[in-house]
Amino acid sequence: MLFVKKVQFLFVILFLVSFCSFGQDGYLRLDNQKKIVYTDVATLEKSKDVLFQNAQKWVVKTFGNYENAVASENKQSGKLVLKSYTPLSSPSFEYLRYTMTVDCEDNKYRVTINEVEGISKSQSVTPLGKKQNDEILEKEILLKTESGRKKKSIAEESLNQAKTDNDQINQAMYSLLASLKLVMSADSDL
């Protein structure tokens, strides 16, 4: 039993490390419509009901108040939709607001995080997606073409801040996916 727990823990750590290494390029993950999206699909030998219950337990463990985090749930279809916030330590944003959908089936679940918005310290809300990636590209080009030392330093600082923002967003979203995976694959009560 201890061996199985260690293997599960190692699996989740490897999952998180692989996602975090992808997310360290300063770009947000976008779908075909150029909207921000994070997904995970896992195959586990568990019934839809057990997976759904595990997802519910994860919500309570992660967010504390189930009713505040869950926007809708349908036990028959195995679908749980959350609208919640996650704290963030980035230069531009204090929190992320997002929609997370968990679809449970027998022996499988799929989770999607989308509609991600950054909330700054001044409480302004910024929809996140293609615009942030385009800004990184523009700042990289500006840095390469800038010849003045002072302007180049300012351009580099601006680029690093934008990449840090995006990397922190990626890390926060992948951490959510990894913590859900850990709970969903657990063999015992939480």
TrEMBL record:
Source species, domain of life: Bacteria
Pfam families in UniProt: DUF4468
InterPro entries, A to Z: DUF4468 (IPR027823)
Domain annotation DUF4468: ranges: 41-116
Name listed for the protein in its UniProt record: DUF4468 domain-containing protein
